[in-house]
Amino acid sequence: MPHHPTPAEHTAVDVLVIGGGNAALCAALMAREAGASVLLLESAPRAWRGGNSAHTRNLRCMHDAPQDVLVDAYPEEEFWQDLLKVTGGLTNEHLARLVIRESSTCRPWMRRHGVHFQPALAGTLHVARTNAFFMGGGKALVNAYYRSAEQLGVQIRYEAPVERIEMEGRRFIAAHLANGERIAARSCVLAAGGFESNREWLREAWGQNERGEWPADNFLIRGTAYNKGVLLRHLLDDHGADRIGDPTQAHMVAIDARAPLYDGGICTRIDCVSLGVVVNRNGERFYDEGEDFWPKRYAIWGRLVAQQPGQIGYSIIDSKAIGRFMPPVFPGVKADTLPELAQKLDLPLDTFMRTLTDYNAACRVGQFDHTTLDDCHTKGVAPAKTHWARPIDTGPFYGYALKPGVTFTYLGLHTDDTAAVRFNNQPSPNLFVAGEMMAGNVLGKGYTAGVGMSIGTAFGRIAGTQAARAASVSKKALPPDGIASIAINSGANNANA
């Protein structure tokens, strides 16, 4: 069993990891495997540990041939083209390809740390070739990593939010906790998430629209309530770290409007958008519902809904769509006729019926196949629906109210292939970043299923390795007798306290 210091003891630490999700855990494990002593600080209580990673399901993986749970092949170039398409070119190709290649080699390492994989389930077959699913989901992955970290001797503290860090130029010196404690270390990995649960920052980023609305006031947060962006803002504003990304860009999904404010997770998603039409509260369509396969395009719909009046939309389907998508947790509003559905959804009847009538008349139905980019499309209606367009004419009919659900934000710290935080385009010698805090280097906009975990795993592993190396260099430069400042009080929040 690993030794855990009592509150009275002091321990010199090589690597400090700030954060408690996938990227942070990957960094902590890699640093510990490299021989460094590691302390991980998680701001959440133990029961809520893991951040947004607890809500994940899979990892997008490059592979040149079938591999256990992954069917067929998903080569590097196809992965890159998928990423290029959803980001519209707003990505660093060097870092993106680094992530893609790392995704092909990380799973054996993940298995060694207790992560198990399973084949894609019914309703997720679109990604059976591209994504490896975690058995038990993200919560099981997070728990496996924490167990492995504890067994390896990583010190873990919960309810330990960091308010600021102490720097000397580009060099990390110490972290200052909300309780006033100062923790110094030879190197540090920042993996504390984005700012999606900071409502004030979201309001500041999105501002007020032409209708006088504050769109961010209607956003739901799909993940953790603990990603406030405190350290991100501190690094950018107080230390002048180089920034990457647009603060309004995010992994933002159209989710069930009845979802909770925080931690609704994957089960709040509404997956029938491509099988019907989506209207705003005025009863009007506003985007091509059949643009591409759902796993590639689902994450654009949150932003689209955020731009509509009242930040709300309604996914409308008929009985032909039932059984072709993963059913949501809450049943949709059901009606025997379209006018009745409009009434139940409180949508303007005349506009709604004109929208549906025009759409139905514009459908050119060929060979419907929701597993391919089929030839069912509309003609003479705007916006067009380019695939899977079939008349909505078979009762009963269903409607789902949609709101923007923010998963994580893309504004972050600029980095390179060493995961070093950069200041005036110069890398820090001992401060590294992983996960949501740097995802904007790869994701300028858009999203494709599972790539967030690919980024977090790749850069978490890189950051942990680099942090251990930086700590080793520091040790050689500064013998043990000279590191009195690099002492921490483990406190009563230790993992086994």
Concise summary:
The protein has 497 residues and is α+β, with helices and mostly antiparallel strands. It has helices at 22-33, 76-87, 93-103, 106-112, 137-152, 199-206, 230-238, 294-297, 301-306, 338-344, 349-362, 451-477; strands spanning 10-11, 15-18, 38-41, 58-60, 117-118, 131-134, 155-157, 162-168, 171-177, 182-184, 187-190, 220-221, 243-244, 250-256, 277-280, 313-317, 333-335, 363-364, 377-378, 397-409, 412-413, 420-423, 426-433, 488-489.
Could you name the ranges where pLDDT drops below 50 across 5 or more consecutive residues?
Answer: 1-11, 479-497
Q: Would you identify the CATH H-level superfamily of the largest domain?
A: FAD/NAD(P)-binding domain
Question: Which class best fits the helix and strand makeup?
Answer: alpha+beta
Query: Strand arrangement, largest sheet?
Result: 7-3-2-11-23-22
Overall structural domain count: 2
Percentage beta strand: 15-25%
The number of helical elements comes to 12
CATH architecture of the largest domain: 3-Layer(bba) Sandwich
- CATH fold-type name of the largest domain: FAD/NAD(P)-binding domain
Report, as a whole number of angstroms, the end-to-end distance. Answer: 14 Å
Mean pLDDT: 92
How many DSSP-defined strands? Answer: 24
Highest-level CATH class of the largest domain: Alpha Beta
Roughly how much helix do the residues carry, as a percent range?
Answer: 25-40%
Biggest sheet features:
6 strands, mixed
Shape: globular
Please state the CA-atom Rg, rounded to the nearest Å: 24 Å
Domain FAD-dependent oxidoreductase 2 FAD-binding: 14-442
Keywords: FAD, Flavoprotein, Oxidoreductase
Cofactor: FAD
Protein name: Tricarballylate dehydrogenase
